[in-house]
Structures are given as C-alpha cells and as structure tokens.
Specification:
single chain; mainly alpha; Arc Repressor Mutant, subunit A; 66% helix
C-alpha cells in the first residue's frame, strides 16, 4: 500500500526516495533498514484494521504530533532559526518578553500591524510548551 501511495503523494523516483531516506538516517544503512521494516510492518497491519481502528490510530497519531504549533515556525534563514510568527520575522521570544514587561495584547497588535490576535494565541501556546527555550532566548538576546 505504501509503495503504491508514495508515487501519488510525492512524484519522485524510488531511487531518489532511497537517497533521501539514506540522508535522513545519516547514511546508516541499519537505521534505514529498520525504518523501512517498521513502515512495511505498519502497512501490513493497517490493511487488517477496521475503519474504527484506523480512526483511533489517526487520533493517536494526531495527538502524538500535537507539539507542532500552527502559526509558529523555525527556519535557519529567518532570525537565526529562532521560532517566529509565520509571515513575519517577529520572534516568539520578543513577544513573550514584551508581555512579561507588561505590554498588553492590544498594544502588541498596534505595534506590529502584521500580527493578528490568532498569532498571539499561537505564540502563547508555543511559550507554554517551550518555556525554558524561550527564557533562554530572552536572556541571550537581552545580553546583546
């Protein structure tokens, strides 16, 4: 099933996919084999599940991936890889530091016209889950 879906989902050739997986596993063939074995086992198991079991598996997977934060991204070429609000170059640590210093959300929205209330909600969620990282970034940037 996976081997049939891959060409439809991602139009790359099998040898390109193998090279990508090889690079993703740091060129360690043993890990590559384990990844493929696990995927093949999952594929076989998936065909034996009922629709309800597949739905439950999907919920578990979504919950497991729940640490992804929509509206917040880290890219090496933007602000040194620090988490920023998408569509902007506004680092999450900057917004959190302003909030710690007493700046209201309304003031932040006025100061940064490209921000939306939803962006702030996403930033605060990210801060709650990554408080140590954000505190460290605040310290590092305030020291400059």
């Amino acid at each position: 099933m996976l081997t049939r879906l891959l060409p439809k989902l991602c139009p790359i050739k099998a040898d390109q996919l193998c090279r990508i997986l090889w690079l993703a596993t740091d060129g360690k063939s043993r890990h590559f084999t384990l990844i493929m074995s696990a995927l093949e086992a999952a594929e076989q198991l998936l065909t034996k599940l009922s629709r309800a079991e597949k739905a439950q598996l999907l919920q578990w997977t979504a919950r497991d991936l729940g640490d992804a934060f929509p509206g917040v991204e880290s890219r090496r070429d933007v602000c040194g890889g620090e988490p920023c609000i998408v569509r902007t170059r506004i680092p999450v640590w900057l917004l959190e530091q302003a909030r710690r210093l007493g700046t209201s959300e309304a003031e932040l929205l006025r100061a940064y016209p490209s921000l939306r209330a939803e962006d702030l909600a996403n930033a605060w969620g990210y801060v709650r889950s990554h408080s140590e990282e954000i505190s460290r970034q605040i310290e590092e940037n305030e020291a400059d």
